Structure formats: structure tokens, C-alpha cells
Amino acid sequence: MLVSLMPDSPPSFTLVDVPGAVPLLGHLREYKTRPVDQLWTWWRQHGDALRFRLGLKTRYLFSHPHLAEAVLKDPDQFVKVYDPRRPSGLALVLGNGLITASGDVWRRHRRIIQPIFHRPRIATMVDQMAQVGEQWMAGWPAEEGPSVDIAAEMRQLTLGVISHTMFSTSMGHHINRMIHALQVSSQYAIDSDNNPFFLPRWIPTPGTRAFRSAMRSMDELIAVLLASRRQSGEQHDDLLHALLHARDEETRDGLTDQELRDEILTFYAAGHSTTANALSWTWYLLATHADAKARFHEEVDRVLEGRTPSAEDLEHLPYTRAVFEESLRLYPTVPLVQRTVATPTTVGGVFLPQGARVLISLYNLHRHPDFWPHPEQFLPERWLGSDRSHSHYTYRPFGAGPRACVGSHFASVEGLLLLALIGRRYDLRLAQERVELQFMVTLRPKGGLRMTRQPRITPPVSAAK
Ligand code: HEM
């Protein structure tokens, strides 16, 4: 439920400089240790439109839906930070993939890829996702054992889902190599982007060498996967098949091998830790809200009657869906979205020079007290009934505008399905005292999330179904 909708005329904002910048470093020290919390604190202290410094680089922080809308709906004025001649940040790893590409290259890729993620196709993947989930849980204990890191479990599980839906295989032992290489390279890329004192890449530091080795490892693996698919000539109903056969509706061109490499890595990078962390936060919230957990278990038991969830079942789990949506509100796994200003412009009365970097904090938007009653509380009920609204940029876990998440439906289906599938069989209980935020490409529980898995007694599968 939203407190109020937007007034007719857009509000005007006063840009506030965050105090406390020190020579050279600016606000780098506070920002680096806990970026998401720090941006939240600055926002609560100083307002919706702020300016701060990371080293000598100026950043703008927007935390109001009007400002978010103005930036996100215009991908030509507010561009992704990527220059193909001088790649930086995640583009170092993902090249010209959909997340990092800009301009005409992005438009072409989006035209080719968007149809792959249409709802009917995702619906056909539900059984495959469920099968991966069931297989994963077959390794879970029959009795409550010692605690495990549920965040790591969710990461492996969602990697299994993306591997199966993309390659029709679990990728066996390759998967650990891939996940490690992706983590090492992405972290290096992000650190190098946010730290003005980072040494150039041509200096062979241990970090640079690890980065290069990780990149080589991923490139080799993808080349092998592509070659073996082409050689086998087999037909598979998976995302790789869809990617290999996708054509630009305007030119009828497909993706080149380099473009395929970039997109495969992009799906891997974007498609597992986001959903995994969304699930981890949901388990954490359920474990710390007994009433919500009881209601969630009741719904799952009643609707599924003990069986593996199907695409149709997902339509009958409104409370479980509300739990997932509320979890993405409080802990959006992509908490920050960045853009660069292409030409000088003014937004909500705030002047932005060319080249300025703007951060939209989805984390702050989702907790804005002008739009959310009890913004810091976990209240899945707010998503039930007719007054639920995703409009007006107050709730944007999947981004907004033309560059919104292409995999949002995939992620929503996967998240709901895995919640129901696991919740049907297990009661997850928190086994640690404190949970802190960590922003490492996505928003995750720092150091993992220790939980115990208590098997549940579920009703027998109904003979009628
Ligand atoms: C809970 C899970 C997920 C969340 C919270 C999430 C969130 C987001 C957000 C906020 C953006 C916009 C970033 C920006 O504007 O700069 C985005 C973009 C994107 N996401 Fe997701 N995502 C999720 C899952 C997925 C999955 C499962 C896939 C693919 C299998 C995926 C693929 C992408 C791609 C390719 C883009 C770039 C789209 C473009 O720029 O055209 N995401 N995601």
C-alpha cells in the first residue's frame, strides 16, 4: 500500500553536499566500508538529492521516485557507464552484454534477447526448475543437523537452475570453476571502478593476475560449451538454443560468437546471485517473523498438498508471492543503479553536468517514509488486496524504464517456486545473532547466513491431483 500518489506537478529538490569530505579521498572511506548503509544514512540525514565524492570523482545520489523516474526512463540521456574502447567496471568482465552495453549495440541486443524471456517460455521452464530444486533438496538432511550457510546453498541452487535452463545440463564440475572465476573477475572490476587509487591493469599485481586468469578460464569454458553444442547438432529446449537461434527482427542478424560469450556470461552473472540473495533474505525475514512464517507454511501446505509445485500452483500462492515481494522491497538485491549523464541537463531542479555519475538507491526508494507506511517493517500483507501498486517508481527491485531487468519474470517465477518447494519440506531457523549487509555486486548477508534445516511433516499428496 502506498501512502500517497504523486502530485500533478513534479516536485523540486535542493541538492545537498554531504558534509565531511576529506582532501583527496572525499567520502571514500565511509562509502567503501558499508556503501548501501552509508547511502541510507546520508539520505536520512540530508535528503533525497545529494552530492558526495569518491576520491576526486563526484557522485550524485537520488532517493526519490521522481528523480528515479526522470533518470531511468531516458536511456539516451542517462547512459550506462560503458565505453567499448575503454571498458571499466563490470563491462571489463561482461563486455557488450545486455547489462553493460549502451546505445545502438544495447538496442540491438535487447531486441534479440527480450523475446527469449517472454512469459510463455518461462512457464515451460517451471518443471525443469522444480526438478533441479528437488534434486538439490534430496541432499538435505532427514533430521535437523548442524547449521549450514543458506546463502551459499541458495547460490548453488540458483546456479543449478540457470545452468539447466541455459545449457540443459548441470555443468557438473565446471560450475565451481565458473562461479569462482565470475566472482574473482567481477569483484576486481567493481573495486577498480570505485577506487580512484586502484593500480592500472597493466601492472601485474596478484589481483590483476587473478583477474586475467579468471577471465581466461571463463572464456575457455564458454568456447567449449558453444563448440560442443554446435558439433552435437542436438536440439535442446533451453536458453542457449534460444540464444543461438535468436534473430534481430529488423535485420534478421543473429549474435556473433563474441556477443554470445558476453550474453552467456551476463545471464550467469545477472541470473544467479540476484535470485539467490533474494531467497536468502526471504528466509532470514521469515525466520525472524514467526507469524509470517506460519502463514507461509500454511499456504504452501494447503495449496500443494505435499506435491512438487507446478506452474499452475504458483498462481495460487498469493501470500508466498507477497512475502517474496516484501523481501525484495526491504532487501533489493540490486540496491543501486548507476547512470552517466550524456549531455548537461536538469532533473527536479538539480543541474547535472555532462559526465556526472548518478546513483539511484533502490534500497532507499523502497524505504521512503513518504510512500510506505512503517517502511522499515516486514509486512507481506501490504502486497495483498486491491491497493497494491508498483507504479510511480516507488518499488523497483527490477529497475525501470527501457533498461529494466530482462529476466524479471524468470526471477519471480524461480523465487516463488523455490520458496514453495523448500518451505513445503523444511523449516529454516536462524542460527546466528546478527546479520549485516554486504554489497558485493549484489546485496547479500555479510559472511553468509547460518541456518538450521528442520524437516517438516507435510500432508500426503492428494490422490485427486
Ligand atoms: C531477484 C532477481 C533479480 C533482480 C532483483 C534483478 C534486478 C535487476 C535490475 C535492478 C536491473 C536494472 C539495472 C540497471 O538499470 O542498471 C537488472 C537488469 C538486468 N537483469 Fe536482472 N535481476 C534479477 C534476476 C535476473 C535474472 C534471473 C536474469 C537473467 C537470467 C537477469 C538479467 C538481467 C539483464 C540481462 C539485465 C540488463 C537489462 C538491460 O539493460 O537491457 N536478471 N536486473
What can be said about this structure in brief?
With 465 residues, the chain is of the alpha+beta class. The N terminus is likely disordered.
Describe the global form.
globular
Structural class: alpha+beta
Residues in β-strands, percent: 5-15%
Placed side by side, the strands forming the largest sheet appear as 1-2-3-9-6-4
Helix share bin: 40-55%
Q: What is the typical, i.e. mean, pLDDT?
A: 89
| Residue runs with pLDDT of under 50 for 5 or more positions | 1-7
Tally of individual helices: 16
If you had to describe this structure to a student in words, what would you say it looks like?
- This protein is α+β, with helices and mostly antiparallel strands and 465 residues long.
- It has 16 helices and 13 strands.
- The strands form 4 sheets. A 6-stranded mixed sheet has the order 1-2-3-9-6-4, sandwiched between helices. Strands 5-13-10 form a 3-stranded antiparallel sheet. It has a two-stranded antiparallel sheet with strand order 7-8.
- Strand 7 and strand 8 form a beta hairpin.
- Helix 6 runs parallel beside helix 16, helix 9 (206-232) packs across helix 11 and helix 12 (290-304) crosses helix 16 (408-425).
- The two termini are 35 Å apart.
- Bound molecules: protoporphyrin IX containing FE.
- Protoporphyrin IX containing FE is lined by residues 98-99, 110, 266-267, 270-271, 274-275, 278, 333-334, 337, 397-399, 403-407, 410-411.
